[in-house]
Design goal:
Elements (H helix, E strand, L loop, with lengths): L1 E3 L5 E3 L4 H8 L10 H9 L15 H8 L1 H9 L3 H11 L2 E3 L5 E2 L2 E2 L5 H5 L5 H27 L9 E6 L4 H12 L7 E6 L5 H12 L10 E4 L16 E4 L27 H8 L5 E5 L6 H8 L16 E6 L5 H13 L10 E7 L4 E6 L6 E2 L3
Parallel strand pairs: 3-6, 6-7, 7-8, 8-9, 10-11, 11-12
Antiparallel strand pairs: 1-2, 4-5, 12-13, 13-14
Helix pairs in contact: 4-5, 7-8, 8-9
Length: 380
């Protein structure tokens, strides 16, 4: 059979017309593969790890992860057969990240020097345009899965986004509405630009706090510097939470509930008293002290660690981990963890409880405490 292209070139094809019809309809033998094969293909498209620790992630990996959305979108538009399969992988994650290709170009890194530049400088203009592109991409994705094709909302399981200052109140209002539409969402990670303007972000996030929305489906909540940790109050069933602060925080969090969150650098220990009420299902606490620039400051932190004993009221807590730079504090943190578990009510936790202290050089010590009063020490 002779075919003619748009350029006028002619070529011969050995495919019969009925095979072409079958291929075009999306039911051809070439595309009629088991879904396990497509699942294996999709597994080779890297996804951004959540929670994201850029200190532990390769830059090339993060760049490849940022292109995941575009890659899956292209595959889903190849044919009707692939659309049905890859749409599930495409909308399993809603992501708006640095370096992500969009219709308006690649999302840039919004650095602080550009923010401080003059109002009419090129750096400032680039910052404003980049900030708008982040907001536009987020609203575009939310609109697709909640307005244009609301049946896709049930596919969303992970949200990993960056919030900017552009039209922040209206964007967050739409974001809060959309979160309530995702019944299978279990992981939420939010970053913010600029990170140093905590007070301004807190004021904008009051929109979410005042809407009356609650998100009981969220089990993993990870917040970057600049995001108010009061968001944890809207997620009563959180089991794993993290809030990563700056190495030298220029502010104190203006809240009596959460001055520190888990997998974090601690700023204030008063959180231990109110956390059991706010997140009663929390089962793992990881305190990361490696970002402290000074080992003496780390030792100063441990002088008030007795205020963490309120964590013993968490009935489901089974793992308490501390990551430190100073080897001198290993034994002290082991003692703190044991005291926390000793305060748990008898019979409240039916599984073994672990206290793990990890030194910066991968030297670790561990205690395993069974549900009964006896405890066994493992070798380092």
């Amino acid at each position: 059979m002779v075919h003619q292209t748009r350029s006028g070139r002619r070529f011969h094809s050995t495919l019969h017309s009925n095979n072409n019809a079958a291929f075009d309809s999306g039911n051809g033998s070439i595309l009629n593969l088991p879904e396990e094969i497509y699942l294996e293909i999709a597994s080779h498209i890297p996804a951004t790890p959540v929670p994201t620790d850029k200190l532990d992630c390769n830059a090339n990996l993060l760049k490849a992860c940022a292109a995941r959305h575009v890659t899956l979108a292209a595959l889903s538009q190849t044919s009707r057969a692939l659309r049905r399969i890859f749409l599930r992988f495409l909308w399993e994650r809603i992501e708006v990240l640095e370096g992500m290709p969009t219709e308006n170009g690649e999302l840039p890194l919004l650095d602080i020097p550009a923010l401080k530049a003059g109002a009419n400088s090129r750096a400032r203009i680039r910052y404003k345009v980049g900030s708008k592109n982040y907001a536009t991409e987020l609203v575009r994705q939310l609109e697709i899965v909640t307005v244009r094709q609301p049946e896709l909302a049930q596919l969303v399981r992970v949200i990993n986004i960056v919030i900017t200052e552009y039209s922040q109140h209206s964007v967050l209002s739409e974001f809060a509405r959309s979160l309530s539409c995702f019944p299978n969402l279990h992981t939420l990670q939010i970053s913010a630009y600029p990170r140093v303007r905590y007070g301004k972000h807190l004021h904008a996030f009051q929109v979410m706090f005042g809407t009356g929305y609650r998100f009981p489906q969220i089990q993993n909540l990870h917040l970057s510097p600049g995001i108010p940790v009061q968001l944890l109050l809207l997620c009563p069933n959180v089991r794993h939470a993290s809030w990563r602060t700056l190495s030298t925080p220029p502010f104190q969090l203006p809240t009596r509930y959460f001055e520190a969150i888990f997998e974090t650098v601690l700023l204030d220990y008063s959180i231990a008293e109110d956390l059991p009420r706010a997140a009663p299902n929390l089962c793992q606490v990881i305190i990361d002290l490696r970002n402290f620039d000074c080992e003496d400051l780390e030792e100063k932190v441990i002088t008030e660690c007795h205020r963490l004993l309120g964590l013993g009221e968490l009935k489901h807590l089974h793992t308490f981990t501390v990551k430190v730079k100073s080897e001198r504090t290993l034994e002290q943190w082991l003692g703190v963890g044991c005291k926390i578990f000793e305060r748990q009510e008898a019979g409240s936790n039916a599984q073994p409880r672990k206290v793990i202290v990890v030194h910066d050089d991968d030297v670790s010590k561990e205690y395993v405490m069974p549900p009964v009063a006896k405890r066994k020490r493992l070798k380092a």
